[in-house]
Amino acid sequence: QVRLVESGGGLVQAGGSVRLSCKASGIHFALQSMAWYRQGPGKEREWVASITSAGSTTYADSVKGRFAISRDNGRRTLYLQMNSLEPEDAAIYFCHRPPDNWGRGIQVTVSS
Fold first, then answer.
1. How far apart are the first and last CA of the chain?
2. Which of 31, 32, 72, 78 has minimal CB crowding within 10 Å?
3. With contact defined as beta carbons under 8 Å apart, do 77 and 8 qualify?
4. What is the chain's Cα-based Rg?
5. What is the Cβ-side half-sphere exposure of residue 86, based on CA atoms within 13 angstroms?
6. Strand bridging mode 46-51 / 101-102
7. What is the pLDDT of residues 56-67, one digit of tens each?
């Protein structure tokens, strides 16, 4: 059974930083491409960043230069380092293993 569990969210001030983690189980993590998505209040779920099994990364334009996706295969954990946070970054953040597996999501709130 595939399980993705996010952690690390919470309340952060605008301009601040937070790191999200996603612990994976039930998959051969090192072989998987992984991604982060987010869904803000009243908005559609949107892609944030992806990382391949080889460690290549891609980002949405809205977060490029501020967010960094990474992985620790030994710990079977995916990360999202979020810097220079803006109120528009407030959302529920989801860990995703394409095509079908999602975490339950974790809230990030940004105070202005």
1. 40
2. 31
3. no
4. 13
5. 6
6. unpaired
7. 999 999 999 999
CA distance 59 to 53: 16
Dist CA 70 CA 36 (whole Å): 11
pLDDT in the model for residue 100: 94
Q: What angle do CA 64, 46, 10 make, to 5 degrees?
A: 75
* Cα–Cα distance measured from residue 34 to residue 11, given in angstroms and rounded to the nearest whole number: 25
**Residue 19, Cβ density class (10 Å: 0-12 exposed, 13-18 middle, ≥19 buried):** middle
Tokens of 89: 């970054």
Peptide bond into 87 cis (omega under 30): no
Q: List the beta bridge partners of residue 10.
A: 108
Residues in the chain: 112
Which residue stretches of 44-93 are H helix?
none
